[in-house]
Amino acid sequence: MSSSDTRAEIEQQPDVWRATRRVVDAARAGVDRLLGAALPEHERTRIVLTGAGTSAYAGEVLAPELARVLKRPVEAIATTDIVTDPQAVTAGDRPVLLVSFARSGNSPESVAAAELIDQLAPAAHHLVITCDGSGRLARTFQGAANAAVVTLPAATNDRGFAMTSSFTSMVLAAWLCLAGEADVDALAAAAGTVLAHAGEIERTVTALRPDRIVYLGSGSLKGLAREAALKTLELTAGTTVALGESSLGFRHGPKAALTPGTLAVVFVSGDDYRRAYDLDLARELTAELGPGRVVLVDAGGTWPVPREPGLPDALWALPAVITAQLTALTCSLAAGLTPDNPFPGGEVNRVVQGVVIHPYGERRS
């Protein structure tokens, strides 16, 4: 298979995670100042994780685990939803900590969502996690009294069409900012194990020639499943249909997507309770599709991803998503596409185009 920016950006993830840790360490004082102001003990600040597309899925991966760690509700709401219905976020007259994820920060919704929260919330604080310090979002909030901007290493600003190392690095940075420490070296080692088995993943996918792929997971791994599906849709220009859903939710309609040529990938939780539901569905799918068309992503699964005992699923998702990134890359190349630019006609763009931000009339007194 040919080399590309996309492949290089998948393979660089262990290194950029270590560099991300150093960036967050350097930004710690500013982040702690912001969090001290935004999350006082006596206030029930609404914590909202936001972004669009892959950046929105970063929030979906993090929200369940952060809620457990912070002992506060944490919500993942896409910028695309905030822009179209901002009062749904600011209802209840509560302060808001908006955590914005952005590869470039130049998508029209990125700044618009943050400005709407400033306009409508009684008090708003912003933690911006971006891969491009020169982007509009970073420039808007750099130096603002109610904000902290964490600009990740330049290598995380993926040049390829689809977000790969930018996604995992933003998830890691947010965890380090909001939850505290993580064993980044262990995560990098787990990613190295996945990358060492890249050839096996590519051979499996090539041999199966799936006409569609369903990704499944519970809790944080539902967000991971949605991101995994998006990678396949993006890199194959939609020629391989992909779906991401929760293990329990899949039976409630989305299971209709199954065909004899489907590849089912189950991200298996490290939590015993959630794991039971993941494995129940895996057994059901194996009976329907056959064992060769059902892949378990687990420490001892079909595609092994090492996991330290007690590791939160949101962190394990970082090396686990590499299996999906490699799958999408393989499908793209098999379709004769260029992964770095699967839409040469510009039908879909690296930075979204064509969005008109309409003025929002209601203002707080």
Distance from first to last alpha carbon:
60 Å
CATH class wording of the largest domain: Alpha Beta
Oligomer: single chain
How many DSSP helices? Answer: 13
Q: What does the average pLDDT come to?
A: 93
- Tell me the number of strands: 10
The amount of helix comes to 40-55%
Q: Judging by the overall fold, what is the CATH architecture of the largest domain?
A: 3-Layer(aba) Sandwich
GO biological process, one term: phosphoenolpyruvate-dependent sugar phosphotransferase system
Keywords: Isomerase, Repeat
GO cellular component, one term: plasma membrane
Protein name: Tagatose-6-phosphate ketose/aldose isomerase
Description:
The chain is of the alpha/beta class and 365 residues long. The chain has two domains: 5-182, Rossmann fold, CATH 3.40.50.10490; 185-334, Rossmann fold (3-Layer(aba) Sandwich). Helices cover 47% and strands 14% of the residues. The strands form two sheets. It has a five-stranded parallel sheet with strand order 2-1-3-4-5, sandwiched between helices. Helix 2 packs antiparallel against helix 9 (184-196). The N and C termini lie far apart (60 Å).
Protein traits:
365 residues, alpha/beta, 47% helix, globular, SIS_dom, isomerase activity, EC 5.-.-.-
Write the layout of secondary structure elements.
Layout: H1 5-11, H2 13-38, E1 46-50, H3 54-70, E2 74-76, H4 79-84, H5 87-90, E3 96-102, H6 108-120, E4 124-130, H7 136-141, E5 147-151, H8 165-178, H9 184-196, H10 198-208, E6 212-217, H11 220-235, E7 241-246, E8 262-267, H12 272-289, E9 294-298, E10 303-304, H13 313-334
Parallel strand pairs: 1-2, 1-3, 3-4, 4-5, 6-7, 6-8, 8-9, 9-10
Helix pairs in contact: 2-8, 2-9, 3-8, 3-11, 3-13, 8-13, 9-13, 10-13, 11-13
